[in-house]
Amino acid sequence: MYAITDDTLLWEAVVSGDERAFEEVYQSAFPTLYEYGMRFIRDEAFVEESIQQLFVKVWTNKATLTNVRRIRPYLLFSLRTLIYNKIRDAKRKRISELDADYDFELEFSPESLLIRKETDAERLRSLQAALDQLTPRQKEIIFLRYYQGLDYKDITEIMDISLKGAYKLTARSLDTLRGILGLSVVAVILLLKTHAAK
Amino acid sequence: MSEQYLNYGKADFLEDASFIAYVNGTSPAAMAFWGRWKAGRPANLEEMLSAETTLKLLLSARRISPTSDRAGVVWNRILGDVRQYDLQLRIRRRRMYASAAAAILLLLVATGWWHLRTGNRNYQTRYGQTMALVLPDHSQVTLNAGSHLKYAKVWPKDGPREVWLDGEAYFDVTHLKQDTLPLKPSERFIVHTQSMDVEVLGTTFNIKDRRGMTQVGLYSGAVILRSLITQQSMQLIPGEVASMNQQTGQLQRVSEDVSTIISWKDHQLVMNKMKVSDIIQLLEDNYGYHIQVEDSTILNKQIQGVIPVKNEGNILFVLSGILQINIERKDSLIIFKQRN
């Protein structure tokens, strides 16, 4: 997030055909991409093949990828699109909306948390019940936001949703999320608008 | 920096990158900072702790990590694909260069073909060599030694037939005129020399353009001579010979025998009281010799007779006999020496 310059230099090296820079990009991104892919489809061979195809595509198209500014969000977006296309092709049918037909695994386990008070334990149980109601998309947002530390602008780009769409998605889920996260509707909308204005 | 956090509610903490990094445990700096912040017991500590619990819950999902060998395994597959791609790219580039080369070759061939259609034909005889040619209209030309003839590869359908001569040639021109109508352009046949045009109507004739003199001998048919210097014209009848000095451009009939003039065509040198100086000129023109004469009195001797010239050694042998001289030859230099 703060290493924009490093990203730019590293990516320039990849674009110019530097194999060591290419491996550096791969090695630092592999665990994240692996986890992200596995959360879509719990099939290691499938996910690894997707990551392989992604990087081969990056190498063969490197001459046209000069406008990549931040590597991590770009790779996440590309892997997501690739997996989506593979699933669609495998099912031999057209899916207009990915979330109509995809899963995103994110199971919360509050029992691992250190409980300070009994009231907390009670609250956690109700929170988990609410969290279990989250849609795959909402889970994906949480994963990208909190597990990967990405901002909302990155998330809208990765998930290929417009800010308007993100707002709609957020608004729909806000009743759930607000209760769990304590996020206010106004806070989320302001946040999205701030990003849109950039 | 800490000031702003005093106004934070739970939602604000949940949107703060530094706070997320702290709960995540990904940034030692953030962990140190928030540790100190909590120890300061701020008024909104409860909001912060509530946010922390929520975030911990959100982050409580079991992480999915590849076993330690997976990154290397997948990388080797990627490297294999990438190396193969680079190899194929090099082969494709090589093929591309090959097809570019093929395209250039095709262009050259096309250009060559175009050149073939539009260019000129050039014929040059070496010394001692004559050449029989058939023109596109089936007219026949015999080109004498050391001469050059040029004409267009493709003759225009509605223009005159034209050839350019430097040297000496004998023409037997195909008569295209089959009617009594006025002459059409395509029926004309013109021989251009440097200083004279000879226009022809179905004719056999000899042109010699050498040493500043242009000489035309008509064997049959009709020709019109046109001096390019004086614009003077002259029509010849069969058997007539005309010559022109290329300095003055003046055309005049001369009393030469046409059959003697064209005898070269039959590989004969017909000498009808021919002066030795003329024979020497002829040998120089047709065989590229340089001839030196020790005794200049022989130059005015006249010779009568026929020498077969198919073999150039023949001529020199015959001449040495007639003139009673010794002939020395060093490459193209020939010296006529007196016998002692």
From TrEMBL, chain A:
Pfam families: Sigma70_r4_2
Protein name: RNA polymerase sigma factor (Sigma-70 family)
Membership in a protein family: Belongs to the sigma-70 factor family. ECF subfamily.
Entry annotated with the keyword Transmembrane helix: no
Presence of the UniProt keyword Cell membrane in the record: no
Domain RNA polymerase sigma factor 70 region 4 type: 125-175
GO biological process per UniProt: DNA-templated transcription initiation
Keywords: Sigma factor, Transcription, Transcription regulation
Organism: Chitinophaga dinghuensis
Gene Ontology MF, one: sigma factor activity
From TrEMBL, chain B:
Domain FecR protein intervals: 122-223
Alphabetized UniProt keyword annotations: Membrane, Transmembrane, Transmembrane helix
Domain Protein FecR C-terminal: 269-335
Database matches in Gene3D superfamilies: 2.60.120.1440, 3.55.50.30
Organism annotation: Chitinophaga dinghuensis
Entries under Pfam families matching the protein: FecR, FecR_C
Name of the protein in its database record: Ferric-dicitrate binding protein FerR (Iron transport regulator)
InterPro entries per record: FecR (IPR006860), FecR_C (IPR032508), Ferrdict_sens_TM (IPR012373)
Coiled coil regions in record: none
Superkingdom, taxonomy of origin: Bacteria
Transmembrane segments: 96-116
Molecular function as annotated in GO: sigma factor antagonist activity
